[in-house]
Amino acid sequence: MKAENIRIEDLLPGIQQIGRESDRIDKVAVVGFGVMGQGIAQTIAAVGIEVLAVEKDEESLERNQLSIEEKLDYEIQRWALTQSEKKAILARIHGSTDLDDCKDYDLVIEAVDEDFQLKKSIFQKLDKICPPGTIIVSNTSTLSLTKIASATNRPDRIIGMHFLNPVPKVPLVEIVRALKTSDSTFTTVKKFAERLGKTVVEVYEYPGFVTTRVIVPMINEAIHVLMEGVATADGIDTAMRLGYNMPYGPLELADTMGLDELLAWMETLFHELGDLKYRPCPLLRRLVREGHLGKKTGQGFFRYDENGNRLEPSP
Fold first, then answer.
1. Could you read off the pLDDT tens digit of each residue along the chain, which spans 315 residues?
2. How far apart, in Å, are the Cα atoms of 314 and each of 96, 170, 247, 249?
3. Residue 74, SS3?
4. How far apart are CA 221 and CA 241, in angstroms?
5. 212-309, what's its fold?
6. Measured in Å, how far apart are the chain's first and last C-alpha atoms?
7. In this structure, which long-range contacts are made by residues 182-185, counting pairs with CB atoms below 8 Å and at least 24 apart in sequence?
8. Domain residue ranges of the chain, discontinuous segments joined by +
9. What is the spatial distance between Cα 54 and Cα 203, in angstroms, rounded to a whole number?
10. What is the distance between the alpha carbons of residues 249 and 283, in angstroms, rounded to a whole number?
11. Sheet-wide strand order for 158-163
């Protein structure tokens, strides 16, 4: 092709391909390596992407690194994973207690407790540490992304990815746009989520988004039914599983989520929306006060072994 005959249309495919490659996410940092952070890190590492897991101190980091190894060993026992797959996943997850290490990563996902001030503080620090083009994601279930984004100098690069627990097994992620999230940020994150094998639901910011807002009133009502003595916990879950073709009953689902997390979501939704259907049932508050938080403590509405398998209904 002679130079004088080159048309811009002939160059567009190459230009577009360069643009696509520049949006590719190859290194991800996950801030917060608890239950959700471990699930997110495992899911990302399983598709061949390098992950940095950042925790607040060495003790927490070592404890959670051991936890993810135990979870992978359990999957091997179930024939759901091989030893070589476990080794490959763990080899791609690198631990750190220094938030500054996030500066070299394409995407940073915050997965700490559902505490607005804590998340805001982390986003402010990440905004100073990371290059301007870095996308910073929150895994919040109920908090305002727009408020979080307003604490940074890159509101167009702030977005939510609401993963559901257990992250490696649930094929859904809600991608939540804040008020100023750009289309390019959404497109990049959507492609990344699809690379993880997730089905994406686009959500515009509103308290509770879709999944949390819909599931919380049902769980809360199930807890009221239990408190009022209408049926046992096992009876309630059996009725809902068989009657509505649910893989888990609402009370076991609550235990899986973590009763402390569930309580925090309800309190946020009740505060934001003012609707009584989000007011936490007193029985939920009592269980949280007593330290019965569900599968992560071995006791909630039901009892569980160290692998999260249900043992028997609580009395």
1. 444 454 544 444 444 433 333 578 999 999 999 999 999 999 999 999 999 999 999 999 999 999 999 999 999 999 999 999 999 999 999 999 999 999 999 999 999 998 999 999 999 999 999 999 999 999 998 889 999 999 999 999 999 999 998 899 999 999 999 999 999 999 999 999 999 999 999 999 988 899 999 999 999 999 999 999 999 999 999 999 999 999 999 999 999 999 999 999 999 999 999 999 999 999 999 999 999 999 999 999 999 998 888 986 544
2. 39, 27, 20, 15
3. helix
4. 15
5. N-(1-d-carboxylethyl)-l-norvaline Dehydrogenase; domain 2 (1.10.1040)
6. 81
7. 182/156, 182/157, 184/23, 185/135, 185/156, 185/157, 185/158, 185/159
8. 17-204, 212-309
9. 27
10. 17
11. 93-96, 50-54, 27-31, 107-110, 135-138, 158-163, 172-177, 199-204
Residue 295's SS3 state is coil
Amino acid present at 5: N
Q: What is the pTM of this model?
A: 0.85
245 sits in the region (left: phi over 0; alpha: psi -120 to 50; else beta) called left
The answer to whether 17-204 and 212-309 have equal CATH topology is: no
CATH architecture of 17-204: 3-Layer(aba) Sandwich (3.40)
CA 203 to chain centre: 15
